[in-house]
Amino acid sequence: MSTEEKPAAPRSLAEALRARDDASLAALLRSRPDLITPVPTDLTQLATRAGTRASVVRALERLDRFTLQTAEALAVAADPATYDELLGLLAGDEGDPAVAGALPRALAALREQALVWGGDDRLRLVRTARELLAPSAQHPSPTGLGPTVQEATAGMSPGRIQEILTDVGLPSTHDSVSAVAALGALFTDRTRMAALLADLPEESRQVLSRLVWGPPYGQVTHDPAPHLRRLLDRGLLLPTAPGTVVLPREVALHLRGGRAHRAPEPVPPPVETAATHRPQMVDATAAGQALAALGTVEELLKDWDEGGPAVLRAGGLSMRDLKRTAVALDVPEPVAAFWVELAYAAGLLASDGEADERYAATPEYDEWRELPAAERWVRLAEAWLLATRTPGLVGGRDAKDRTLSALGPNLDRSAAPEVRHRVLALLAGLPEGAAPVEDSVLARLRWERPQRREDDLRTRLARWTLSEAELLGVTGRGALSAPGRALIGAPEARHPDEGEPSGPGDKLPVHHRVPHAPASLSPAEQAAASATAARLLAPLLPEPLDHVLLQADLTAVAPGPLERPLADMLGVLADVESKGGATVYRFTPASVRRALDAGRSAADLHAFLAAHSRTPVPQPLAYLIDDVARRHGQLRVGAASAYVRCDDDAMLSEILADKRAAALGLRRLAPTVLAAQADPAALLEGLRAMGFAPAAESAAGDVLIARADAHRTPPRTAPEPVPDGPPVPDDTLLAAAIRAIRAGDLASTAPRKPAPGDDSPDANGELPRTGPAETLATMQAAVLTGEALWIGYVNAEGAASQRVVAPIRVEGGFVTAYDHTADEVRTYPLHRITGVAELADDSR
To answer: Is it true that the peptide bond before 215 is cis, omega within 30 degrees of 0?
Structure first.
């Protein structure tokens, strides 16, 4: 006899898992993290959990198309099936080298995820997966196959089965089981089956051809036509219900040439290139988009500085306010929703929580504005990459047919971060500067995660990702930029100062030269990737300017981004007229008055313009400032109900005589004071509408200074992404979990010596039962011999468990022992030990 015995084939999934090493178990728990929440007590519980419907459905949804096709083929194969049978179902009678080459990988993936177990000679699909994927009348198989002959004839009378045998030229049998077996053997015999089909008329063969690729069910009348009768008499169509027939699986497989699928897809479709640009051009375009993104977010939050739109009762932004925001940003409404949601995801925007709740910038926005431009962009790009909130859904309807609003509830889609990472990783797999064909990207994603509906969420998320990445500057001209490549952790990100790539490496296939980026990064890895992205973007952005060009038509041209103090002051003193490569500001009486209201004097404004203009201050602009300043503050509005005071009583008389002042309810209290029935804010607006330049004053008579950035929300945290199921466990958790599972399995499966009178020496699964005296004596003896024992233990909460322990000391009603289950020394009260048994000799 050989000294090396072949290990016995596993009889269950639990035994198959028990034969795995720690690395294989870690791979299972990493690919199916729901199995580790909470940590199973032993491998039997792990196998049970791996076979639950919810867990199996989740695992199947994460298979690529060919791996799923492999599982579907196993579901229609015999149980168990051999590797050769499975290969025949996927490659057909003629064979397919691509299928043969890809099948080992697909089968390994199914084994790794515990969806398939057993050796190549006995492959078994877990029962729940077989129930989900096997054909049935209620749930047709994606293969288009129907039931087997045995399943379709289950309710057929024995006499009818014998009649079918006679019609196909087979001898009668004594029972239905052997008759069905003989019929099935005929249908799987290629030679005899070909002869049987050749004897059919053309009309009958056409009926079979219509059913061969599914659905396999058809309708017949009570008196079928002769060509249908020929099929029914020979069992090539079998009745399943009155008026309904089905094409047996064996017949369909013969007609298909042995293939379970019409078109196996062992190789993922390639991502095609639509256009190729110089990498420097891609990076420059992306940098321009990044700069525009920063400007758009700042413009949005500046517009909401003094309190933005009101929060809807159900939460979110009304469609009317979204339209106003889109007009203010000069973008379409879906794009405005994207910028609003991006600012919210980055923690720069939130509701203020007041009674009259409104949206406004957060204190974190002020800190963000002080960062360098590249770091500000990275903050936005990170928030976009990790956010589960999906702006593309805004304007759609939820499950209750309610409109989904920006900043409102029900916008989280947990698959969004994974899809964004994957789309960008596919772009990273192309040569630098290559823009993909959108349909090829979508086809690749559908292969990696086969869609269940015609227009599934992942497809829409991928489309939105491509457009949003371009808006944000992660891509330029459709191609992934160097900062974008670094952001997702893709290797070989090219520095923008480097020249065109050259050398032998460029001749390698793309998947060798630029491997895919990881689907997710750890916090430390993401921080390093973000720092690299900022470093690559910084030299691509123009340096902020400290000057503008003043023109005689009361405009100022900023030929590039401005330094923060200059931009802030110019934003108060003038209105933005147009944006683009250069920003045009226009000076108006209202904008100058706004600067004066903010506490600036005419001299301050003249000095500011002279210091920051590369051209002389035009005379019309100087006159405008002086004219507005001369009239500014002559009228003072304060709170009584409201009042107006002015040293020039003639001006007050002019106001009283103006018909437009009637709505303000003014009356003279003194030569230099008017009282009003309107509140101070309305009085200020009314007088300004009449062409005056009043200033608000405090109760002490001081001019109130209006600041544009006065309103901020209390400190707010950015919204947390909604996880897509349990998080993937890290290496530390995996190691601890596997150690606990192994130890628990040892305790539950360790054979023990039978107690006197016990006829079942292996009572696994039941707690040992011994009396207190016997338990104490056995423990004391084990302390002297150093042997391990198998005990049953009930903790303070009443939970029972089995453990393998090596007693060290017994005293005071407690036993101190090394617990193999917990891999540590523990102390147990003796009264909580239900019983004790010695381990069998072969388990030590």
So the answer is: yes
Tokens, residue 652: 């007050």
Distance CA 354, CA 369 (A): 25
DSSP 803: E
- Kindly report whether the global pTM for this prediction surpasses the value 0.85: no
Alpha carbon distance 103, 90 (integer Å): 9
Q: Give the separation between CA 239 and CA 247, rounded to whole angstroms.
A: 9
Structure confidence by residue, pLDDT tens digits, 104-153: 999 999 999 999 999 999 999 999 999 899 887 777 788 999 999 998 88
Residue-by-residue DSSP string for 550-593? EETTTEEEESSPBPHHHHHHHHHHSEEEE-SSSEEEE--HHHHH
Distance, CA of 378 to CA of 764 (rounded, Å):
57
For 780, the enclosing helix (H) or strand (E) is helix 772-785
Note whether 532 and 495 are within 8 A (CB). Answer: no
Scanning 697-771, the segments in alpha helix (DSSP H) are: 731-749
215: burial class by Cβ within 10 Å (0-12, 13-18, 19+)? Answer: middle
Q: What is the pLDDT of residues 350-361, one digit of tens each?
A: 988 888 888 988
Main-chain phi, psi angles of 247, to 5 degrees: -85, 115
Round the CA-based radius of gyration of the chain to a whole number and report it: 39
Q: What are the DSSP E strand ranges found in 667-764? A: 667-670, 673-675, 695-696
Query: What are the two backbone dihedrals, phi and then psi, of residue 335, each rounded to the nearest 5 degrees?
Result: -70, -40
What residues contact residue 392 under an 8 Å CB cut-off, 6+ apart?
334, 338, 460, 461, 463, 464
What is the rounded distance in angstroms from the CA atom of residue 700 to the CA atom of residue 683?
A: 19
Strand ordering across the sheet containing 244-246: 217-219, 244-246, 238-241
CA torsion angle for 689, 664, 694, 659 (degrees, to 10)?
50
Whether the CB-CB separation of 207 and 213 falls below 8 Å is answered with no
DSSP strand E in 357-465: where? 359-361, 434-436
